[in-house]
Specification:
Blueprint: E1 2-6, H1 13-22, E2 27-32, H2 44-60, E3 65-67, H3 71-85, E4 91-92, H4 98-102, E5 108-112, H5 114-117, H6 120-129, E6 135-139, H7 143-148, H8 152-164, E7 172-175, H9 184-190, E8 196-198, H10 201-211, E9 225-229, E10 232-234, H11 244-250, E11 264-265
Parallel strand pairs: 1-2, 1-3, 2-9, 3-4, 5-6, 5-7, 7-8
Antiparallel strand pairs: 8-11, 9-10
Helix pairs in contact: 1-10, 1-11, 2-3
Length: 274
């Protein structure tokens, strides 16, 4: 069975890693768009066209599920994808983990890209699930781009800037961009001790398994990991090797749990990030 994941850059790595950890027998098709990246500042029509093009290619390659592990792409084009491919092929999007974070009743911050932070989408999410809970909106300019380039110094600078603008009394930080779990260790180190990080990659992976009737953690494998770069077969860019999950996916190995950020965590990641 083939599951396709579509994103402009490395935002798909964490969800792909969870799928590889939970169901290593699956064949994964990773569709990145280095020629069109980053999608964040692009128009809605541009993002929709790139997503639909990649999804049609995934369907031609026999994908039995299509995953959009990108918040911007989900809010922009998930309806168009579902109208085109469902019910024949399930389409699974990504939503920041505001709901479980807010359920604790504690104060929280949402770290996201500049575009997502300013979006009506994020405001609706907060209004729907975090009404009455103190929520700080923290834009993280340049962080996703630094992660895509494997630029340790630039990522550290962006994290330090975001941490400085995060209220010290926040009990939790929601990672509102799918790139950010790749630098979870650095993010946690920048925040007060005891801060909880919330991420959605594990939940998205488990939703994929539910939608494809694979409800248990399977022990088979290994399946293949194929990469498409802006429509052409390729390899994961070398910058992906800066992250444990990227290195594991590049070798089609099963991804160990310690290379992944759990849905919620207060512990520093044991594996180095970048």
């Amino acid at each position: 069975m083939t599951v396709a994941l579509i994103d402009s850059g490395f935002g798909l790595l964490s969800t792909a890693g969870w799928l590889r950890h939970l169901a290593p027998e699956l064949d994964l098709l990773l569709l990145l768009d280095p020629e069109g990246a980053p999608w964040g500042p692009k128009s809605a029509s541009f993002v929709t066209d790139r997503l639909l093009t990649a999804a049609h290619l995934a369907a031609e390659r026999g994908a039995e599920a299509i995953v959009v592990p990108c918040n911007t792409a989900t809010v922009t084009a998930i309806d168009a994808l579902r109208a085109t491919f469902e019910p024949r092929i399930p389409v699974i999007g990504t939503v920041p983990a505001v709901k479980p974070a807010a359920a604790t009743g504690q104060s929280l911050a949402v770290w996201a890209t500049v575009r997502t932070t300013a979006s009506a989408y994020q405001e609706r999410l907060i209004a729907d699930f975090a009404s009455g809970v103190p929520v700080a909106r923290v834009a993280c300019p340049g962080l996703a781009e630094a992660i895509d380039h494997g630029d340790t110094a630039a990522a550290a600078e962006a994290i330090a800037d975001a941490a400085e603008r995060t209220p010290r009394n926040c009990d939790a930080v929601v990672l509102g961009c799918t790139h950010y779990p790749l630098v979870a260790q650095q993010i946690l180190q920048s925040l007060p001790a005891g801060t909880t990080l919330y991420d959605s990659a594990e939940a998205v992976a488990r939703q994929v398994l539910r939608r494809t009737d694979r409800t248990g953690e399977a022990g088979g494998g290994p399946g293949s990991v194929d990469v498409v770069l802006s429509g052409r077969p390729g390899l994961l860019p070398m910058a992906a090797h800066a992250y444990p999950v990227g290195r594991a996916l590049a070798t089609a190995a099963r991804v160990p749990r310690e290379a992944l950020l759990s849905a919620t965590t207060r512990a520093l990641a044991t594996a180095p990030a970048i």
